[in-house]
Amino acid sequence: MMYNKTIFDLSAKGRCGASPISADVPDFQLPDDLLRAESAALPEVTEVDVVRHFTHLSQKNFGIDIGMYPLGSCTMKYNPRINEVACRLPGFARIHPGAPPQYAQGALQLMHELQSYLAEITGLDVVTLQPAAGAQGELTGLMMIRAWHTSQGNPRRKVLIPDTAHGTNPASSALCNYAVETVPSNDRGTLDLASLREKMTGEVAALMVTNPNTLGLFEKDIAEAAEIVHQAGGLIYLDGANMNAIMGIVRPGDFGVDVMHLNLHKTFSTPHGGGGPGSGPVAAKSFLAPYLPSPIITKSGDQFFPDYERPQSIGKVQAFFGNFGVLVRAYAYIREMGPDGLKFASEMAVLNANYIRENLKGIYHLPYDEVCMHECVFSEKSLPGDLRTLDVAKRLMDYGFHPPTVYFPLIVKGAIMVEPTETESLENCDDFIQAMKTIRAEAENDPKALTSAPRTTPIARADEVMAVKKLRLTADMDG
Ligand SMILES: *Cc1c(COP(=O)(O)O)cnc(C)c1O
Q1: Are residues 352 and 240 in the same domain?
Q2: Separation of 135 CA from ligand 1 center, angstroms?
């Protein structure tokens, strides 16, 4: 039976979930002007009501702990529980971010070491851990680029962005007061160097590029692109959201990148399906070090401390040190994996994506038929009749899979973007492939199975536009 109650439906007058002991301190009467006139409209429920209610709600959701979550570009890998244990250790979980450095040496050391691991992995020199997400890392990196160009006498006017880019790239550029110019991709789905050459003028502050790009393809000409941009005085910003494909295999600093962000919640394993806290550290070449946000965690002798004496810094981009809990998880993950483990993870992520691509090729249309990196992109092109990508995605839910990313990247009409990640076994990949094949057969023989999907979920097809534009989080149905 479908559980469909609100906590208010369970409420009964006088019911109570706690039995506080009577206070042994004198009563204190708050002044009248601080007291509310009527009691708050809170549900009156028992402890067991509360536990069952929230357990029911949790079962309406889908998460990586339930099944495969091949959401392209999001790297929904399984997040090892050891990371959760580490970040909940009282010394990490209960430390106050304002604690004087001498009382926070362990936390500062962890951040200092994480900075150096990320510098090593990216092949860059300096790292800030402050930004709270990839998008904020982008803005931080662009602000550093603007500060550097300004120090050279001209902040420049625009940023070049390939047409495969994630929407946050142009948004961050606009926030940083840069005009955006699109660089089209060639017919192999990668940067078109001729077009880049043409657009690369003295007005361009940076090329903002994702590698591997959002088609899951490695930008093979990246070093040459970097040379074109550098020769005209521009910088290379790398959107590092797809780092899960290349860890320990190639370092962005070695292919010409000047500054980039990482998404710790994607590549370095923090649960992020529910929009919880993330972390988007920014790594840069040393000439950009003066502009990094403050503070940077520094070491002097055997002491660690946050360095605020940085007059050219772009300032703070986040309270205190950023999302420290995510930093602890990433640190635990990197230490647990080690350099060989990280490399192996990337190799397996790439292998899984190619396995799925090869097995579904010819069954679903593959717009760019190339060996891919950690994700592969199909399209709706070969679906019969009026069936669309959305119908396939919804039907997958009935087979127990989270749908892939759909309708992105924008240059593929009806894109279906599959990123299995390295944490899915061969058997899980096979199950996914089988479900996709079954759905493709249903598309021919029983199209209603697709158009009426999903049938096994708590709600069927939500009006997604309405849900975004008129989001209502309350249960009272009037007004
Ligand atoms: C996820 C993602 C971003 C944005 O990162 P957030 O951490 O969600 O802000 C940017 N670019 C690409 C390619 C991404 O996949």
Answers
A1: no
A2: 6
